[in-house]
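[#protein-structures] MJ: dropping Ribonuclease H1 here for a structure pass
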Amino acid sequence: MSFGDREKGKKLDSGVKPVTKLENYGTYNFHQDEDGFVYVYTDGSCEGNGTAAGRAGMEAAALAIRLAKQQGIKD
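AK: finished. C-alpha cells for Ribonuclease H1:
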C-alpha cells in the first residue's frame, strides 16, 4: 500500500491557510492569504543539488524576500 492509498479520503491539516487573492505590488502579483501573508514559491533546484555544496533553498528564499521588499511588501 502506498502513502497515497493510506491517505486517500483523509484531509490533512498542514496549518497553512489557503491563498485567497492575488495582490498587486509594484509590477508583480503576489499570492496572499486572508491574514495578508504573501506566499513565495521556489523550485529548490540548484547546482550541487543533493550534496553538501547545494545551497539553493536559502539563497532562493533570501532573493525572494529581497525582491518582495523592492516591490513594496512590508515585513
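MJ: nice. Strands lie at 19-25, 28-33, 38-39.
AK: one more thing. The CA atoms of residues 16 and 33 lie 9 Å apart.
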